UniProtKB/TrEMBL annotation:
Ranges of residues in domain Pirin N-terminal: 11-120
Gene Ontology MF annotations: metal ion binding
Cofactor field: Fe cation
Keyword Transferase included in the entry's annotation: no
Family: Belongs to the pirin family.
Regions crossing the membrane: none
InterPro entries named in the record: Pirin (IPR012093), Pirin_N_dom (IPR003829), Quercetinase_C (IPR041602), RmlC-like_jellyroll (IPR014710), RmlC_Cupin_sf (IPR011051)
Matches recorded under CDD domains: cupin_Yhhw_N (cd02910)
Record keywords, A-Z: Iron, Metal-binding
Record's keyword annotation contains Metal-binding: yes
Domain Quercetin 2,3-dioxygenase C-terminal cupin: 157-235
Organism listed in the record: Kordia periserrulae
Protein known as: Pirin N-terminal domain-containing protein
Length: 238
């Protein structure tokens, strides 16, 4: 088993006043040649948007984009005529494919929005753009992982699908237990991102917003040291 540790304070940071953004991998003005992604996972941004602010209309192409709200609600509008809000418990996927434009906005007058945005490189270029979002039953994340995103050709339970052999799972765990995570494919790797709490994997202790990339293994044992919320992204490593 091989690992790479990314501590929370090693992430890139951008503070634009209306937006605070933390970058797990090289993005915009943050460049680290050792952090160009993890396998097919190219971007994991942890964004905090101030009230009545947001991202203006901008383009994307040939990328699978997944948004996961952690607090607040984020309004979405795109060139495919989708106009919806995404809230905690929901997950949004957008296949940019041949190209689209969208905007994201915090409509609240008082509350920040905190959300994760992940970019996963697709298996094929030039697909037809698509958008989907879904509310997940968070009780299915209690002391177990719920798969919320899966490959188009291997849908898992009620997961949203993308154009890549990748999976995104979320789980909320009580302290003082060991959780086994089984990779779907031994050639994949997983990027374990701690949303809250504290866990241990081998001799690595991970706290809030720490991450550990793991590959060349089929199973990972996760020791839950404190009540924890965990995001796991499983991706092809080539």
């Amino acid at each position: 088993m091989k690992t790479i540790l990314h501590k929370a304070d090693s992430r890139g940071k951008a503070d634009h006043g209306w937006l605070k953004s933390y970058h797990s991998f090289s993005f915009a003005n943050f460049y680290d040649p050792n952090k160009m992604g993890f396998g097919q996972l190219r971007v994991l941004n942890d964004d905090i948007v101030q009230p009545k602010m947001g991202f203006g209309t901008h383009p994307h192409q040939n990328m699978e984009i997944i948004s996961i709200p952690l607090s607040g609600a984020l309004s979405h509008k795109d060139s495919m005529d989708n106009k919806r809000a995404i809230t905690v418990g929901e997950v949004q996927v957008m296949s940019a494919g041949t190209g689209l434009q969208h905007s994201e906005f915090n409509d609240s007058k008082t509350d920040e929005v905190n959300f994760l945005q992940l970019w996963i490189q697709p298996k094929e270029l030039g697909v037809t753009p698509r958008y989907e979002q879904k509310q997940f039953d968070q009780s299915k994340q209690n002391n177990q992982f719920q798969t919320v995103v899966a490959p188009k050709d291997n849908i898992v339970e009620e997961a949203l699908w993308i154009h890549q052999d990748a999976y995104i799972s979320l789980g909320n765990f009580d302290a003082s237990q060991t959780v086994a995570f089984q990779l779907k494919n031994a050639a994949h790797g997983i990027y374990v991102f701690v949303l809250e709490g504290e866990i241990a994997i081998g001799d690595q202790i991970l706290s809030q917003k720490d991450a550990l990339g793991i590959w060349e293994t089929e199973n990972v044992a996760i020791d839950i040291k404190e009540d924890a919320k965990i995001l796991i992204v499983e991706v092809p490593m080539n």
